[in-house]
From TrEMBL:
CDD domains: PBP1_ChvE. It is found in: Cell envelope. GO terms for molecular function: carbohydrate binding. This is Multiple sugar transport system substrate-binding protein. It comes from Pseudonocardia alni (Amycolata alni). Residues 1-26 form the signal peptide. Keywords: Signal, Sugar transport, Transport. PANTHER family: D-XYLOSE-BINDING PERIPLASMIC PROTEIN (PTHR30036). The keyword 4Fe-4S does not apply. Residues 43-327 form the Periplasmic binding protein domain.
Length: 380
């Protein structure tokens, strides 16, 4: 079962994360900004896209918290274009950024930029997405991504009645029919999400409790390039045409992200699902995007996995401050995240699954959304 998230104050996180382990910062130096005032230091923040409300929220949270700590911030969005992100990071390096905080579009595409940062003595913190195939990644802040997948699979089972809220066996015994969706293969997180989910689902697939009617059970078959809603919708339409043209229906769909979930749901609604005669299958999600929270509140989407980006931004600021003060941020995982060249010291945050009954206590009471946001399906 997934780890339940507890509200953590900014101050507590700062105390925890600044318990530095000692040692050198990126590039073998003692921290690019050691001895300088925060106002004289610039943090380059590279985010992948503004097409997802999740990444907009991340960018705003990181910028606001770094600014509140006194740092200058250069926040750039790359609009899911790899050359654009590469150029933006190049510019940050040549403009004299003191630290880079990077959420990569393609985790293997930034080796040249990271080498330039290394040569300039600029620490690099990977934000939520692991940067691969480079020795020049100094730290990684993220959520426990394997547990995200575990949480999604358990939510799928719970939504279909195979599991109770406490993890015990539910009233449904199966077999149930599901389809699997995965994220973009150029995002390392997609593999952790899928592997976590399959650690729960594969034994049930093997014993016949869960059946994937299309037969598409590998991440390569289930992948959704760039996590695009339209791509997910098209694949779901194709699955309905090819595997459910006999009048049968899927009982559930494993979706790793709310945008993919909305694409899946659109395809299902267009095919007549969501009526008393043809109920909507259980559909999971991730990121608690407000449009999907509204769908959960309306009984259309079953669940989402909430990753509190405020806490991720807090921990990113903790890591940045540690490096810029000449130290090294504390990791709580030094074994899991091998980027193909090195194991990157990491700080993992917990996650929380949200069903309809959890919207108020988890999302509204914590101030992440207002009740009015949920009612209208958008913020503001």
């Amino acid at each position: 079962m997934f780890t339940r998230m507890r509200t953590v104050a900014v101050g507590a996180l700062l105390v925890l994360g600044l318990a530095a382990c000692g040692g050198e910062g990126a590039g073998g130096g003692g921290g690019a900004g050691a001895g300088e005032a925060p106002g004289d230091l610039t943090v380059g923040v590279s985010m992948p896209t503004q097409t997802s409300e999740r990444w907009i929220a991340d960018g705003n949270a990181v910028r606001d918290q770094l600014t509140a700590a006194g740092y200058q911030v250069d926040l750039q969005y790359a609009n899911d274009d790899i050359p654009t992100q590469s150029q933006q990071i190049d510019q940050m390096v040549t403009s004299g950024a003191d630290l880079l905080l990077v959420a990569a579009i393609d985790g293997t595409a930034l080796s040249g930029q990271l080498q330039a940062a290394k040569d300039a003595g600029i620490p690099v913190v990977a934000y939520d997405r692991l940067i691969r195939e480079s020795p020049n990644v100094d730290f990684y802040v993220t959520f426990d991504n394997f547990q995200v997948g575990v949480a999604q699979a358990n939510a799928l089972l719970r939504g279909m009645g195979l599991q109770n809220a406490d993890g015990s066996p539910g009233p449904e015994r199966g077999p149930v029919v599901v389809e699997l969706f995965a994220g973009s293969l150029d995002d390392n997180n997609a593999f952790y999400f899928f592997d976590g989910a399959m650690s729960v689902l594969k034994p049930l697939i093997d014993d016949g409790t869960v059946r994937v009617k299309s037969g598409q059970t590998t991440i390569e078959q289930a992948a959704t390039l760039r996590w695009a809603q339209e791509t997910a919708q098209k694949r779901m339409e194709d699955l309905l045409t090819s595997s459910y043209n006999d009048g049968s229906s899927p009982d559930g769909v494993l979706s790793p992200y709310d945008g993919i979930s909305r694409g899946v749901l659109t395809a299902l609604q267009n095919a007549g699902f969501g009526t008393p005669a043809k109920p909507m299958p259980t559909v999971t999600g991730q990121d608690a995007e407000i449009a999907s929270v509204k769908l959960i509140d309306d009984g259309v989407q079953s669940s989402t996995v909430f990753k509190d980006t405020r806490q991720l931004a807090e921990q990113a600021v903790v890591a940045a401050k540690a490096f810029l003060d000449g130290g090294t941020p504390e990791a709580n995982d030094t074994t899991t995240y091998d980027n193909g060249v090195k194991v990157v010291p990491s700080y993992l945050l917990p996650v929380r699954t949200v069903f309809k009954a959890d919207i108020a206590p988890v999302l509204v009471d914590s101030g992440y959304y207002t009740a009015e946001d949920v009612a209208r399906g958008r913020q503001g």
